[in-house]
Protein 1
Amino acid sequence: MKTMALANQKGGVGKSFVATQLAFFLAERGKRVLHLDLDHQRNSSVPLIKSGLARLAGCAASDVLQGPVTALIDFPFVVVSGDVRLSGLERQPEHHNSYVANLRGFLDAVGAQFDVCVIDTNPNPDIRYAAALICADCVLSPVQLNQEALDGIGSLLRHPRYGVHKVRDLMNPKLDLIGLLPNMVEATPFQRANLTQLLQAHPQLLISLPGELLRYAFIQTRTAIAEAQAAGVPLWQLRHASVSGQGKVGAGSLRTAAREAWREVRPVFEEIERRIFKEA
Ligand SMILES: Nc1ncnc2c1ncn2[C@@H]1O[C@H](COP(=O)(O)OP(=O)(O)OP(=O)(O)O)[C@@H](O)[C@H]1O
Ligand SMILES: [Mg+2]
């Protein structure tokens, strides 16, 4: 099993959107997917559970850290939901080492049952965030193209305790930074200038896409993305609500806007899948 964490200490950049929709995508591709939501806001576990495609594990994320949890229900798409007790773990520093050991033990114990574990993290650099980076094989960081978020990239990489470089040097030499994924990109001169600045400052951190032209992965602001998250459906399955003669609301036709959004997101997710599994 490969374990990928979504991480950025900046809030609201799209970690939960990518975690949710990537989990849907990998499951659709036939991968056995375990989703672990380390954020008590549950912004990725809720849509995954709502979809009916994934099954809820019998334990919550805080149980995994407080451990030991060594077994899960037998199903190819399982969600370990975030829960409120997660936010109290930071106040128990005497247990922090065991939280990391328990997460590692859990991932080892269930590793044969899944192909990939997607971990959604909370935006504060705390023990949950640290445990995810210490135990993951790779990390993907959605970012926004505003100045504040760009300044935050330094902290993502070089935070004195939880920066990706620090974690790799001291605790997890296998940690591979898949890259930065600009999200909620708008076609404004301001954002274009920030993208240019990002390319100049960290060209190796952007995710290049295969093809003849040099293109970097990014995702635009698309209302259909927020709607798919709210509805708890894969983006490529977002439909219009249709009202029948009896006033019943059902699933109508596929939405054009969602199809267009998916046309952009799909090659990005395909490349991320290749990088998770290190496929040529
Ligand atoms: N490309 C996009 N286009 C439109 N809406 C988006 C896009 N990406 C994310 N969103 C929406 O923006 C909001 C914030 O995204 P999300 O919850 O994924 O961010 P986050 O980084 O997980 O936030 P937090 O740090 O609070 O966990 C959500 O309502 C989400 O549906
Ligand atoms: Mg989130």
Protein 2
Amino acid sequence: MREKLVVGVDLGGTTVKTGLITSSGVILAERRLPTLGDEGPEAVMGQVRKSIEGVLASAKGKAVRGIGIGSPGLVEKNGIVKAPPNFKGWTSVPMADEIQAAFDIHTEVDNDANTAAIAEAKFGAGRAFPNFLFVIWGTGIGGGIIMNGQIYRGPSGGAGEIGHVSIDYKGPLCKCGTAGCIETYVGQRYLSARAVEILKQHPESKIHALVGGDLSKVEPLYISQAAHDGDRVALDIFTEAGTLLGVALGGVMNTLDYRVSIIGGGISAAGQFVFDAITASVKANVMSPMRDEIIVIPAQLGNTAGMLGAAGLVL
Ligand SMILES: [Zn+2]
């Protein structure tokens, strides 16, 4: 069978990454353009179109069967994108209709957490698992639910918001309006703030030297470097964060009768010790018959996940 060709667009906060992609997940051509999120929706949509034109030129007349786009923000089922964070002047844009009209190619849009989950399901760490929870652990905590090999979107498209599972009803107030969301403990900014508090009590930590004594510079990258260097304080910070994340994940495993979590995003890349902490915590927070079957593994696709998962929307 001839391979199908599609376009996958990863619309990020700073860069639009667009690939010409085969049905087996090979990226044949790629264009990267600045998103221009500060210049309003017209400018952003112009960049998306330009990047698609770029990769279509590389198709050299071969039929392109679809265009998939992973976008930040709330994506409704008809491909309308609402209020992506960090995009100025953007209320609601019918992205799927606009792109489909511009190229006369079938177009699907989904949110970027879902496309990253689809990428792992089709081409990455999730290939062996028809059912898993996908988690992106970075600036915030995002997620997607893969059910019987497909993304589960829920009745209105909002499923998979693992970052807003509360682990303490008296916890810190989250931007979503709920107290104690897991994101308010282990999202990048919160994790860094927590690390600063701990570091004030621990002058012996190597993190102090890594930030030149300036605690306002503390971020997960430095904590990770110190942890790899055997720094006890840094290891404890990640172990605590992984343990808290595992509490939220354990609840989801129980609810869905799931065993497998696949975790990507910048902070998850800190090291195996993070996965050890999450795994131990998930096991401690699921029903006992599930305990021995719990699997927590890293995502495989990194930077290409957005494009591959967007392509997966139309494959
Ligand atoms: Zn929240």
